[in-house]
Amino acid sequence: MSLQVTPLNNIGAEISGFNINDPMTDALKAELKALWYEHGLLLFRGQDITPEKQIEFSRIFGTLELHPLKAETSEEYPELFVLENGGDKDKFFTASYKGEEIVGRLDWHMDLHYTGRPNHGALLRAVVVPSDDGLTGFGDLAKAYDALDKETQELLKKIEVAYAFCMQRKHMRYVDLEGYEPGPHSPRKPSDMKYPDFPDSVYPAVVTHPVTKRPVLGIVEQFLDRVITPQQAGLSNDEAIELLQYLVDHTRKPEFHYFHQWREGDMVLWDNWRLMHCATGTRPGVKRVINRTTIEGDVQLGRVLSGE
Ligand SMILES: O=C(O)CCC(=O)C(=O)O
Ligand SMILES: [Fe+2]
Q1: Burial label, 285 (beta-carbon count in 10 A; 0-12, 13-18, 19+)
Q2: Which fold has domain 4-296?
Q3: Cα separation of 199 and 225, whole Å?
Q4: What residue ranges do the domains of the chain occupy?
Q5: What are phi and psi of 214, to 5 degrees?
Q6: Extended strands (E) in 145-297
Q7: Alpha-carbon distance 269 to 248, whole Å?
Q8: What are the backbone angles phi and psi of residue 269, rounded to the nearest 5°?
Q9: For ligand 1, atom 4, which residue shows the shortest CA distance?
Q10: Tell me: the pLDDT tens digits for 61-86?
């Protein structure tokens, strides 16, 4: 049996030519894992995937992580995290963007990045999807690094960047705030969402991927705050701010992106040590359900600034 690999728009690949319900050989598992590292994102379509199957399949790629908030996990399947729009919790995730109410829009981010120990990856499987909105975007920061000029690549090797966790988009320095207004129930402080107060985390501006050893641009717009000691790299504060804006604009280039328009049953796996992702959100009342499994991050990629 040989797998078919069909590249998606710009980044990632659709994988077909196997049946997820047939017994899988070690060779097939190894091939799937290698394809994950090669493409950063794999899409599986038209497979018959139950929650049990999703959990079993996810284990090919590493140890699974349980969501830290018990209330969020399914009682039957603790490895499964159900992302749901169109229910009671919508009001907390509703905000206004250029006059339009949107539920669950998320800026470009990496999961658990703010802890210094991001998840290794995740699998999302669409259970209920709206026909037009509710897309998930993915951005390849290894390709983004490769596309930088040599001079910028060299400069970045000398720099570390700090991320400041916060609940209010208005206080994030590099997200696009044009036309944004929080909703009346938008969380204002971490405890509103039962989160602890995470201290700042710090990453090299170029992160070496722990498995592939590829350089990955360490710039993600959500929570991005500042360059640490810019003068050590010969930069003034103004230059450091301009550099971060230049790099964020670079990561926003469509040639590094793939936006997935979900069909029911689709499953997407991504490498969270390499790709950032975002969600376009849905209009209020629109039902969307995604089952998520998470591959644990077993490597510390950043450091935590507490006590410094
Ligand atoms: O809802 C989505 O499309 C993506 C949500 C997300 O950011 C995640 O599952 O990590
Ligand atoms: Fe996420």
Answers
A1: exposed
A2: Double-stranded beta-helix (3.60.130)
A3: 12
A4: 4-296
A5: -70, 145
A6: 160-163, 180-182, 201-204, 206-208, 215-217, 224-228, 257-260, 267-271, 275-279, 288-295
A7: 24
A8: -115, 135
A9: 279
A10: 999 998 665 556 677 899 999 999 99
Digit-coded pLDDT (tens) for 136-152: 999 999 999 999 999 99
Query: What's the rounded Cα separation, in Å, for the pair 30 and 32?
Result: 5
CB 172 within 8 A of CB 222: yes
Ligand 1 atom nearest 136 alpha carbon? 3
| Ligand 1 atom, smallest distance to 106 CA | 7
What residue ranges line ligand 1, CB within 6 angstroms? 83, 106, 111, 122, 124, 136, 277, 279, 290, 292
pLDDT at 273 over 80: yes
Span 12-25, pLDDT tens digits: 999 999 999 999 99
pLDDT for 271 equals 98
Q: State the pairing for strand pair 201-204/106-109.
A: unpaired
